[in-house]
Specification:
The structure is a single chain. The chain is α/β, with parallel strands linked by helices. The chain contains 5 helices and 9 strands. It is globular and about 50 Å long. The two termini are 26 Å apart. The mean pLDDT is 95. Bound molecules: adenosine-5'-triphosphate (ATP).
Amino acid sequence: MLDIKDLNKDFHKHTVLQHLSLHLEGNELIYIHGINGSGKSTLFKLICDILKPTSGTIEKKKDLQIGALIENPGFLENETLAYNLRFLASLNNHYDQQYIEELCQQFHLDFHSRMKLKNFSVGMRQKAGIIQAIMEKQELILLDEPTRGLDQESIHIFCQIINQLHQQGHTIMIAAHDYLPDIHYTHIYHLEGQLYLDEMD
Ligand SMILES: Nc1ncnc2c1ncn2[C@@H]1O[C@H](COP(=O)(O)OP(=O)(O)OP(=O)(O)O)[C@@H](O)[C@H]1O
């Protein structure tokens, strides 16, 4: 599904990723741990083609659908949640209102609310960001610090949704400082220039 070989990324003279390789077959649930500035967002942006590698290759399965939450997702601030989600999903012709309403319900977000996105709280905005990353049932889902701003109950719901998506065959990569023990990870990596695989029990 994804094959990253000898990836290097420099910003001017600052090297962030060095000789990074990663091979995904599909249906992995991966945790990437890295300190601030280790390059978690940079790696995800490279996978999504938002950034170009300095050298190395990223090969993806043909027509791979990728859903991503990276840093602050861009929304149409003067529009409602429903408008934003419909707009984003319609870009790929993947609008499934029933599934989106289900996700909103699970996260206690009112899909039909007339509130504009600019008035959402940090946690509400984060939930909207998670929903837009998974609502098209994308094969590969990249989530950068997904639980930022979420309360304990919402984190619990998030873990359930992720485990369920994994059971359904999706491949998910979560980059975060905090390890979430309720998520049934298949692989744990530390990011320090390269990805170092952690031995799991
Ligand atoms: N567009 C850019 N131009 C210059 N430097 C950049 C750029 N984007 C990222 N960097 C640098 O690359 C390094 C990695 O940044 P990145 O945002 O990928 O880290 P991160 O692991 O996601 O950090 P955090 O945990 O704080 O979110 C940082 O030193 C950052 O300053």
